[in-house]
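WP5 quarterly update. Target: GAF domain-containing protein. Source organism: Knipowitschia caucasica. Length: 372 aa.
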Amino acid sequence: MGDKDTVEKFLDNNPQFATEYFDKKIKADVITAAFNNKVQVKDPSSYKDVTAIQESEFIFELVKEMQDYSQMEKALHKVLQRIALMIQADRCSYFVFRSRNGCPELTTVLFDITHNSTFQSNLVHPNVEIVYPTDMGIVGYTVTSKKPQVVADVKKDSHFSDFVDKQTKYTTKCMLTAPIMSGKDPIGVITALNKQGADEFSKSDIDLFTKYANFATLVCLQAHTAYMWDVESRRSQVLLWSASKVFEELTDIERQFHKALYTVRTYIKCERYSVGLLDMTKDKEFFDEWAIKLGEQEAYKGPKTPDGREIAFYKIIDYLLETEKEEIKVIPGPPADHWALVSGLPSYVAENGFICNMMNASADEYFTFQVI
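Structure tokens (predicted):
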């Protein structure tokens, strides 16, 4: 081991190494800025004391960020920056787990975070997010297995997929992942890629990553719980309001839909919506089948509802909200070329009973939407 003069000479001759080392280990300004008070350190050269103060300052800032759950991404960004700094990861990311149209998937929320990157540059806009199924890649395996993954060489891991690398022109060599869990259900995954200056992450790096993954879980859980409470609260308000309006007027179904959907539109924020009313008759009367029995009309061969009824919309109510003056149209016996029916989507929903959430209707190949 070198003496004091040797170490001092080495640091003088290698300023870049000295800067990187002390950026990782010690932040001098923390000693005076932690908790916005002057902190007395008995031995300023004590790595243990300075590290404890730095950790306290970081946790205090994190708690302040968590007071506003709507800024969850900012607090999580701070945690991932800290991870990138402490374990010398080339970049970190956060993927959120969601289910759309019954299909589980992962999407980028915070991407390519470094120890000095800005929040705005790492926050992914919904229009450019990367989405892929949970049965793809190590991140997908982390969600399905619900266990953290330590991959020293991604080329030797059978779960690895270069889908994201191809999208970003990046080369992943090694990685650490950790699932963010809400009880037994995953809500996201954090990742750390490519150890700087080494081929893989060390044991101490893995311990630090696990430690700060707990902070990330705390941030996400707090925001997730607050969000779910808000959703349930708004849903209860809408249901109570809709129920009260239904019992106010029981003679006109159009009025009922208008009252209920007028409030719902505040939450779905759409430009127009339509309500298609199905014929509830399952067994036809004799006179309805007379034309078929005489051969004057072909028997119905189209799709049917799950309970066996023919899909026939006897009335459509259109609510057009994109103009300054809202317009409501009630169309009895709507034609087949009605803008909503011609797409085939209403019949598909009636036949299968599915809720369809289409991100890009114009690019969909299954349904045909009119340009209106």
